[in-house]
Amino acid sequence: xxxxxxxxxxxxxxxxxxxxxxxxxxxxxxxxxxxxxxxxxxxxxxxxxxxxxxxxxxxxxxxxxxxxxxxxxxxxxxxxxxxxxxxxxxxxxxxxxxxxxxxxxxxxxxxxxxxxxxxxxxxxxxxxxxxxxxxxxxxxxxxxxxxxxxxxxxxxxxxxxxxxxxxxxxxxxxxxxxxxxxxxxxxxxxxxxxxxxxxxxxxxxxxxxxxxxxxxxxxxxxxxxxxx
Length: 228
Description:
- By secondary structure, the protein is of the alpha/beta class.
- It has one domain (6-226): 3-Layer(aba) Sandwich (Rossmann fold).
- The chain has helices spanning 19-32, 48-52, 65-77, 92-101, 104-110, 125-138, 171-177, 184-188, 197-214, 217-226, and strands at residues 6-11, 38-41, 57-59, 83-87, 114-120, 142-148, 164-166.
- A 7-stranded parallel sheet has the order 3-2-4-1-5-6-7, sandwiched between helices.
- Strand 5, helix 6 and strand 6 (142-148) form a beta-alpha-beta unit.
- The radius of gyration is 17 Å and the shape is globular.
């Protein structure tokens, strides 16, 4: 990510399309890059993201104003580091509304943050339209459309800018990587014993493709800064 502290919002308007998986990979990517991300998991009460990063994640009930305030106050009280916000589909309208009502853009810009919106576009054309509407509402510094090849995506080919792709995973990998003790970061650092040999290439292909796209975020944000 860019040297400027970044708030990365990972979301979608559809359920069960790999959003939290993407957030997990993002967090492990940041850790591999030597960053110190803190996570805000809005999937209360399940807390799926928190189960993988319990020491650096706050589980927040975003249904109510105190929870909404907690998200934004946590970020503003701890400038100088990256934040990853996992926003489930059912909380997306409320998140956009809270961002607007609390004038969070002014606050995070004053605190030196940039906002990156990473949005998984589902197979339905309506998902593409909703993504455009959310981008217009949140006005992020960088909008990153994402296609998950496992569920399909309405994202057309040739979209300019940074685009993330989640390649298909072997079905046998899902049970392995869903275990709360599994770490993509550790796997990439050589701890491959928990993954059968026949599945390792598939997982590496998935991670290298996704992390290759994530490495493009820093130059894209730096270019934006030059144009200010």
